[in-house]
Design brief:
Layout: E1 11-12, E2 18-19, E3 23-24, H1 27-32, H2 42-49, E4 58-59, H3 65-76, E5 82-85, H4 95-105, E6 111-116, H5 124-130, E7 135-141, H6 147-160, E8 165-172, H7 180-193, E9 198-204, H8 210-213, E10 220-224, E11 227-232
Parallel strand pairs: 5-6, 6-7, 7-8, 8-9
Antiparallel strand pairs: 1-2, 3-4, 9-11, 10-11
Length: 274
């Protein structure tokens, strides 16, 4: 199979999100479930389609100072208020490497959104660094996750609140309450949504997914970016479309007057780098 390039790049996806993945591929996720999270990882399926080995994580780097400057200029021109890390890989697989990249791209006046399942946890030195930059950590979690993953996700989400903007990004599903497992998982999902600062992410699945076949989740046909999609939607009002029209913007636009995010509200105006 083909191996990913280790050259870091800014990519705009079909939803209009600009991603700068510090790593690509997801060894941890594929070890957790053979075909990726919830047996329907979009990034893993896309990798297989194009012949890439998604089970081998490749760290991505700047190749030169010129390349570094090119990326910074590209980020500065993004029409959105933020750049995202964690689209086709999980930055938590190597936090030391991720922090190294953050130290470079934080020079640009854009908020950085990191999406992670916390396969490894940030240490105290890395957490303290987050207080110095404009960053929002999206902790990805679902009632479908293993018990230990849910426990760790909640712990990390709460811990990170002390250092920067922290959001619980819940991959939700319309669980079948007439199914014993579905009912059990729905209660876990209700518990997750009782936390502050939550984002609801619609679960997209294949009709052959074992969750569908066993009747654990309810699904329906929908349109996603103009194409047919099979989804399990917990909340009918949850946004499902282009990112430019999203109100929450991966947590960047969320407001919580009961919590002072140290990195956003009091962050000084950054010096121009160009």
């Amino acid at each position: 199979m083909r191996q990913y390039s280790d050259k870091i790049a800014l990519i705009k996806n079909s939803r209009g999100i600009y991603s700068l993945d510090t790593s690509i591929g997801c060894t941890s996720g594929m070890e957790n479930e053979k075909v990726g999270c919830y047996n329907d990882c979009y990034a893993a399926k896309s990798a297989k389609l194009y012949g890439y080995d998604f089970s081998k994580t490749v760290l991505r780097n700047f190749k030169s100072k010129r390349h570094e400057l090119e990326i910074l200029i590209q980020i500065s021109k993004i029409p959105l208020d933020f750049v995202r890390i964690g689209t086709s890989g999980d930055p938590s697989e190597n936090w030391e490497h991720t922090i190294k990249i953050l130290k470079v791209i934080s020079k640009v006046d854009k908020e950085i959104v990191i999406i992670t399942k916390h396969w490894t946890n940030l240490n105290i030195e890395q957490l303290q660094f987050l207080t110095t930059i404009n960053v929002c950590i999206n902790t990805s979690v679902s009632a479908l996750d293993k018990k230990e993953l849910i426990k760790n996700a909640i712990e990390q989400y709460k811990l990170i609140k002390k250092y920067c903007r922290s959001v619980l990004r819940i991959v939700s599903a319309d669980f079948n309450l007439a199914n014993e497992t579905g009912l059990k998982l729905s209660k876990i999902q209700d518990y997750l949504f009782k936390n502050e600062d939550t984002l609801d992410t619609v679960l997209r699945v294949n009709k052959n997914n074992k969750l569908v076949q066993s009747g654990i989740i309810n699904v329906k046909e929908s349109k996603f970016l103009g194409k047919k999609a099979t989804i399990s939607k917990f909340n009918k009002k949850t946004y499902f479309g282009k990112c430019s029209s999203c109100i929450e913007m991966c947590g960047v636009k969320m407001k919580n007057e009961n919590y002072d995010y140290p990195n956003k509200r009091f962050f000084p105006v950054q010096t121009k780098i160009f």
